[in-house]
Amino acid sequence: MDIIHLLPDAVANQIAAGEVVQRPASVVKELIENSIDAGARNIQVVLKNVGKSVIQVIDDGKGMSPMDARMAFERHATSKISSAQDLFSIHTLGFRGEALPSIASVAEVELKTRRQEDELGSCIFIAASELKSQESVNMPQGTNISVRNLFYNIPARRKFLKSDTTELRNITNEFLRIALTHPEVAFQLCNNGTQIYNLPVTGLRQRIVNIFGKTINSRLINIDCETGLVHIQGFICSPEQAKKTYGEQFFFVNNRFMKHPFFHKAVMEAYSGLINTDCIPAYFIYFTVDPSLIDVNIHPTKTEIKFQNETDFFQILLAGIKEALGKFNITPPLDFDMEGALEYTPVKPQEESQYIPKIHYNPGYNPFHYTQGKITPQDSDFEHNEQRKPTFHQEKVPANWDILFDGLKEKEEAIQTSIPEMSEDMSPILPSTLCYFQLKGRYIVTPVQSGLMLIDQKRAHQRILYEKYMETLTSQRVAGQKNLFPERLELSASDFLLVGELLSDLEYLGFELTAYGKNSYAIHATPPDFSYTHAKEILIELIEHYKNTEGNIREKMKERVALALAQAAAINYNTVLSSEEMSGIVENLFACKHHHFTPDGKNILHVLGYEDVNSWFK
Questions:
Q1: Which domain holds residue 271?
Q2: Is 578 helix (H, G, I), strand (E, B) or coil?
Q3: How large a percentage of the chain has pLDDT more than 90?
Q4: What's the predicted TM-score (pTM) here?
């Protein structure tokens, strides 16, 4: 019996939909791209329940005839290519003829469309790949398509959709990727009657400003590099404005968004030495190339694009960005016109005597004086020099290693009960009477039974403060600290709406924000012990963290706020500490639940073993 057979069209369409239609954002992307290809100059996207209930795209493009409207829902039906050779010279966004039939196989679709030369338009209703009706309708030129009840016939797929916030973010990402390539087209995006974006026809720079806010305008640097292989243009961000989070990094090729880690590496290499290694500059870079040099058909979503001779494009991009940075005096340019010129250096008159500093010292000075078996500092000129600031504090320093460790064993059992459990090789045994000194204004050094323990003072303080703040944030609602002068936080439209959903959680943590103008909030209060000058940075980090994290947002935000507060409030390096202050840090550190690492996983302490020291002198 034969077992191989052809799949029904409805099943084949659903399989194709699994590649093309992954979530509501996929539908929005495909429909907007169709509108762009149809020559639309005004595109409106209307959502209900972030597209789970309704996705409606209205445009003023050239429209379709009644026959074309019906044919558009057949698999591999397209007006954009006619032969295999056309795949190597693609100038449109859509071309495979899979989008509409794939969407119609997993939703209810109503299409209304009319050409300029037709008196009446055509209205088609399709559900689960089955044509339900087709009739004439009176409507303006263009296309109006509504997709309802996405995945209604595949409950398993619908169940795996993310939260409304996540799905809306995915939709806005797709919407903005297209809006950034077509500033000559007006776009609108609404969800549940709330307008998220209203982008009029503008130039490219103004389109970027309308999307990401006015503050980005002052930090955009123009890039324009043209060769026989490629024309690269757009904008990059000034180095001092680079952020620690992603979100403003865009590559486009022939007006199509693409993801390209290799080219991103070129951008980061161009900024090498100008920004911190954990920062990412914003960029909006547009490639214009011969379509025969790229392959856009290697991925269903067409966001991964293959270039011929990628290394050549890499070098051109790297050189173009460096040139743009150099023109704006971000990196010092080479002045070849001055080559060989003599440098004029003014000379002081001979009669002026120059001051030669002299060193005064006491050749008989001994830094330690033995008194009854103990070492005490000896009086010297250094003690009376008011301009000299001690770099460390020292009290009752033992004379030798035997005295240093004297009496430790008797106190071992008592000390162990007050220190959290650690493995034997990580647990220093603290002596009964501790002495401390600072090393290079960074490390607290103290003897322990197994050797010398070095503690990073800033990291130790961060761990102490982090656990203190976490306990406070977990046990009760935090009362915010009012700011005398509220600071303005300007956001993108989607982030503005997101913060609106998080206001109650932010208030629980001690932030107080109110809407202030378009897509902006005024920060009236911040958590206590927190410098409001860092409020904007911390809030932006919280927003980015939330956008990329699922789960209990309040708990996640507590951790992020506690870490941010601890990092902001911890003592800095080169801060001179008294013996009492060093003792307090060490005692509070070992009272923490986790005292060996900072909240972000960095090592806090290290023990220099006695045996290691002995090995140096063999």
A1: 204-327
A2: coil
A3: 31
A4: 0.65
List strand residue ranges (DSSP E) for 229-282, in order.
231-237, 249-253, 256-258
Distance between alpha carbon 121 and the CA centroid of its chain, in Å? 46
**Within this chain, do residues 454 and 484 fall inside the same structural domain, yes or no?**
yes
Q: How far is CA 544 from CA 498, 540, 599, in A?
A: 10, 6, 19
Whether the Cβ atoms of residue 198 and residue 211 lie closer than 8 Å to each other: no
What does the angle CA 269 – CA 275 – CA 281 come to, to the nearest 5 degrees? 75
**pLDDT confidence of residue 490:** 84
CATH number of domain containing 43: 3.30.565.10
The pLDDT value recorded for residue 458 is: 92
Distance CA 105, CA 107 (A): 6
The residue among 22 and 188 whose pLDDT is bigger is 188
* Distance separating alpha carbons of residues 357 and 21, to the nearest angstrom: 78
For the chain, what percentages of helix, strand and coil (3-state, to nearest 5) are there? Answer: 35, 20, 40
Q: How far is CA 550 from CA 165, 470, 506, 546, 555, in A?
A: 10, 20, 17, 7, 11
Contacts of 7 (CB under 8 A, 6+ apart): 15
Residues, the chain: 618
Q: In whole angstroms, what is the distance from residue 585 CA to residue 588 CA?
A: 5
Query: How does DSSP assign 14-46, residue by residue?
Result: HHHHHHH-SSHHHHHHHHHHHHHHTT-SEEEEE
Token reading at 20: 């093309």
The answer to whether residue 234 is domain-embedded is: yes
Indicate the pairing of strand 512-515 with strand 605-609. Answer: unpaired
Tokens (6 digits) for 258 = 């693409």
Q: How many CB atoms lie within 10 A of CB 605?
A: 22
Strands 220-226 and 142-148: unpaired
DSSP 8-class letter at 476: S
Question: How many whole angstroms separate alpha carbon 96 and alpha carbon 300?
Answer: 10
Structural element, H or E, at residue 187: strand 186-191
**Bridge partners (DSSP) listed for residue 58:** 44, 144
Dump strand ranges (E) for 346-458: 368-371, 374-377, 437-439, 443-448, 451-456
Are 431 and 461 members of one domain?
yes
Distance separating alpha carbons of residues 501 and 483, to the nearest angstrom: 23
Structure tokens at 382: 């250094």
- Is residue 589 assigned to a domain? yes
Decide if 442 contacts 430 (C-beta within 8 A).
Answer: no
> In this structure, what is the dihedral angle of CA atoms 305, 309, 310, 312, given to the nearest 10 degrees?
-140
Strand residue runs (E) in 60-182: 108-114, 121-127, 130-137, 142-148
Q: What tokens appear for 521 in the block?
A: 């909030």
Contacts of residue 112, defined as CB under 8 A and 6 or more positions apart, other chains included, come to 121, 122, 123, 137, 139, 143, 144, 145
185-216 pLDDT tens trace: 999 999 999 899 999 999 999 999 999 888 88
CA distance 449 to 419: 14
What is the domain-level CATH number for residue 446?
Answer: 3.30.1370.100
* DSSP 3-state of 410: helix
Q: Which residue in the block uniquely carries the two structure tokens 């840090």?
A: 585
602/471 same-domain check: yes
